[in-house]
Design brief:
single chain, globular, eight-stranded parallel barrel
């Protein structure tokens, strides 16, 4: 199946789950789950993952290859890029969408830099996600009790021209527990005020029933990373504990890949209701 863009998934019958990729096993696990469930999904590569690999191209090319080989629609997306150079590299190698994160800047600088990224990306036919302020877990304004204002969000979209907006509604990045309390009334208000699809970051910290409720309230793209790594790591740890002389990484990485794929398929079904 040809690669698809995130923007092509707008208006579909279900929310779009977006799963972060750190290594090729992640991409393979997510694609296998997408094919099992018949769902459209997003493979996301964050700036942190790029830093881990030393550059975008190796892991980016792997994700693009996995997506192109899948039998269900899979988009490849750059997540939380703070560098314009990284955004433009992603565009050059074939990513269909990017998240440009200028949330650590002043509001005016955020708007100006994001609007310029949108201009250049749209010239290349690439969609752009952005946010006001940071999601929790990254020392940003999405700390407990802080929320995105619907009027501010609508004004930001109008000023920048972004295609998707990440909003602060109670979730937090890198949570190991799943007890974040989402503001469903605010999600509904944001959905009414903002003319582009809403994105929930930090979804690993949100319980299943709350994820489903967030989708019903108006969330469209659901970002999940830490929850997958928990399952991957637990499986690897079990295999190594059970086989202390094992040295073949295919044995333990394969187990991690299988465990992650099972959790991805489960989460897809949760989001689809």
């Amino acid at each position: 199946m040809p690669l698809v863009q995130l923007r092509e998934m707008i208006g579909g019958p279900a929310p779009v789950p977006a799963f972060n990729v750190i290594q090729v096993e992640h991409a393979e696990a997510i694609a296998a789950a997408a094919q099992e469930t018949g769902a459209s999904v997003v493979l996301q590569i964050s700036e942190n993952a790029v830093r881990y690999h030393g550059s975008l191209r190796p892991i980016g090319a792997a994700a693009l290859s996995v997506a192109a080989s899948a039998s269900t629609p899979i988009a490849v997306h750059l997540d939380h890029a703070t560098s314009e150079d990284l955004v433009h590299e992603a565009v050059r190698i074939g990513f269909g969408s990017v998240m440009f994160d200028a949330s650590a800047c002043s509001h005016d600088e955020n708007v100006a830099r994001t609007a310029e990224v949108v201009r250049r990306c749209h010239e290349a036919g690439v969609g752009v996600e952005a946010e006001l302020g940071e999601i929790g877990g990254k020392d940003g304004v999405h700390a407990p009790g802080v929320r995105t204002d619907p009027d501010d969000a609508a004004a930001y979209v109008a000023a920048t021209g972004v295609d998707f907006l990440a909003v602060a509604v109670g979730s937090s990045h890198a949570m190991l527990t799943r007890d974040a309390e989402l503001d469903f009334e605010l999600i509904a208000l944001l959905r009414e005020a903002v003319p582009v699809p809403l994105v929930l970051h930090g979804s690993s910290g949100v319980a299943d029933e709350s994820l489903a409720a967030a989708v019903r309230s108006g969330m469209w793209k659901i970002n999940i990373a830490t929850q997958l790594n928990k399952h991957f790591t637990a499986s690897v740890r079990t295999v190594l504990d059970d086989h202390p002389t094992l040295v073949d990484p295919r044995r333990y990485l394969g187990a991690g890949r299988e465990a992650m794929s099972t959790e991805v398929a489960r989460l897809i079904r949760v989001l689809e209701g």
